[in-house]
């Protein structure tokens, strides 16, 4: 059987159960599903869309192999005829989506699938899985980029990420959001993300004295290296770096930076900067890490800590202050009929939709309109064609392009939304035609429900 990340069985059992019921009833007309976030977490003023490339690759490769079909056959509720019908199943539908790196808000579709019902239903769980995670991480990472004010940011999150795929995709999402690179080698190999590394405390401890460890590392990497200086006494280690730097320079090499990973980072950075400067090491920069997030970065910069770059890991990779988004993939039309869920707290808008974004003369975003897809909206349409007839329309854009889009989009946010503090919500209005469609859909559902209730009452009376 294939690796789980590539398997069609990376889905919920109820998806297959619904597919069997659709098969039994002969239901497979065109369905329209949309993926969106219902509400922004309190700690978020905006989201950054990410994960589309992986979502499209999943759809393009959708198929059951023999081992997967054999496993389904071990589940008693599935009929042989239904299982056989899955053998040739492929995704043949259309996808429209918001480009990765685009700013988005609550209730705005990030992706729309238009396909035969069985295909569109089957892909629900994995699409949510891919789009939710990277959008969540990119949105968290963008806040660190804002807080860092141009300082270098490196993803340090592999070792505490929730699994290998999460580590890779969080490195990708953070790079789109504006990080400069990752410490994860596989992210460099898979996505071309720049990779960076220093050393661990174990390297220092493996040597009898700290100065010997520094000297050995500098000899191994004469073109430039970063030395970790907080294993024992941070300030004493900084003085050792000054002495070593003079020897390294005399031999034509250089020490690029020192890294501090614990303690009061602002105070230690201030003291270390003074030691380096007095020792003539003005060109040696300071890099900090250790349970950092946007709030810690904001505090360090507010204290004027002389730190030139940061390693940000665990708190970003798990989005610690908002570890999930209230998102959904909902049926909005089937067989030409608009559909709408009306559960308390989970109502969604019916029909195929588009988001139109308006900017002022300075290019700052001033408001979005959620409208029906066939409306001539005012502003830039955000949902763009991505797949037609099961085929992707273009190769995935280079990450550099997605990163540039995110930077442009973040710069276009109103200033209040670029703050880490909760801001008044960005205006997203709903068009009159969409409201009218929702009203007609509700009235139709209520009428059918009333008619069905009367029929049941008559039938019960006859009993």
Helix content: 40-55%
Low-confidence stretches: none
Q: Largest beta sheet, briefly?
A: 7 strands, antiparallel
Superfamily (CATH H level) name of the largest domain? nicotinate phosphoribosyltransferase
Give the class-level CATH name of the largest domain: Alpha Beta
Structural class computed from helices and strand pairing: alpha/beta
What spatial order of strands do you see in the largest sheet? 13-12-1-5-3-17-18
Q: Which term fits the overall shape?
A: elongated
Q: How large is the radius of gyration? A: 27 Å
Beta-strand percentage range: 15-25%
Give the beta-strand count.
19
Counting H and I runs of at least 4 residues, what is the number of helices? 16
* Domain unit count: 2
Give average pLDDT, whole number: 95
By CATH, the topology of the largest domain is: nicotinate phosphoribosyltransferase
Q: How many angstroms does the end-to-end distance come to?
A: 53 Å
> Any guess at the CATH architecture of the largest domain?
Alpha-Beta Barrel
Q: Would you write up a description of this structure?
A:
It is elongated, with a radius of gyration of 27 Å. It has 2 domains: 244 residues, nicotinate phosphoribosyltransferase (Alpha-Beta Barrel), CATH 3.20.140.10; 92 residues, Aldolase class I (TIM Barrel, Alpha-Beta Barrel). Helix content is 42%, strand content 19%. The strands form 4 sheets. A 7-stranded antiparallel β-sheet has the order 13-12-1-5-3-17-18. The model has no long low-confidence stretch (mean pLDDT 95). The longest helix is centred in the C-terminal third of the chain and has 31 residues. The protein has 463 residues and is an alpha/beta fold. The two termini are 53 Å apart.
């Amino acid at each position: 059987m294939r690796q789980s990340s590539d398997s069609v069985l990376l889905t919920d059992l109820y998806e297959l159960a619904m597919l069997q019921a659709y098969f039994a009833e002969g239901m497979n007309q065109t369905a329209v599903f949309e993926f969106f976030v219902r509400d922004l977490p309190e700690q978020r003023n905006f989201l950054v869309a990410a994960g589309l490339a992986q979502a499209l690759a999943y759809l393009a490769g959708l198929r059951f192999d023999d081992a997967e079909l054999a496993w389904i056959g071990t589940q008693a509720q599935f009929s042989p005829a239904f299982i056989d019908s899955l053998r040739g199943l492929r995704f043949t539908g259309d996808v429209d989506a918001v480009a990765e790196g685009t700013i988005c808000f609550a209730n705005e579709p990030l992706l729309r699938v238009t396909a035969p019902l069985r295909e569109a239903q089957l892909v629900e769980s994995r699409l949510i899985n891919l789009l939710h995670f990277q959008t969540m991480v990119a949105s968290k990472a963008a806040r660190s980029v804002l807080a860092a004010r141009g300082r270098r940011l490196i993803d340090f999150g592999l070792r505490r990420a929730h699994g290998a795929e999460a580590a890779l995709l969080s490195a990708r999402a953070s790079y789109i959001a504006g990080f400069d690179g990752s410490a994860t080698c596989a992210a460099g190999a898979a996505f071309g993300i720049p990779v960076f590394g220093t050393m661990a405390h174990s390297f220092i401890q493996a040597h009898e004295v700290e100065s010997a460890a520094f000297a050995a590392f500098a000899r191994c990497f004469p073109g430039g290296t970063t030395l970790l200086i907080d294993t024992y006494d941070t300030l004493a280690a900084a003085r050792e770096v000054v002495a070593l730097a003079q020897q390294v320079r005399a031999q034509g090499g250089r020490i690029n930076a020192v890294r501090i990973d614990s303690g009061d980072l602002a105070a230690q950075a201030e003291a270390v900067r003074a030691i380096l400067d007095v020792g003539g090491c003005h060109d040696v920069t300071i890099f900090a890490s250790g349970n950092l997030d946007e709030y810690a970065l904001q505090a360090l910069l507010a204290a004027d800590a002389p730190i030139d770059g940061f390693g940000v890991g665990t708190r970003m990779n798990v989005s610690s202050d908002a570890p999930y988004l209230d998102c959904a993939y909902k049926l909005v039309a089937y067989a030409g009929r608009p559909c709408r869920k009306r559960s308390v707290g989970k109502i969604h808008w019916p029909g195929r939709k588009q988001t139109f974004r308006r900017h002022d003369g300075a290019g700052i975003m001033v408001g979005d309109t959620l409208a029906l897809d066939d409306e001539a909206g005012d502003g830039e349409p955000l949902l763009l064609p991505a797949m037609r007839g099961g085929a992707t329309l273009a190769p995935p854009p280079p990450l550099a392009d997605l990163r540039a889009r995110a930077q442009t989009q973040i710069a276009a946010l109103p200033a209040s939304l670029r703050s880490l503090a909760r801001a008044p919500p960005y205006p997203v209005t709903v068009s009159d035609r969409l409201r009218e469609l929702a009203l007609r859909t509700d009235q139709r559902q209520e009428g059918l429900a009333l008619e069905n209730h009367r029929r049941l009452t008559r039938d019960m009376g006859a009993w």
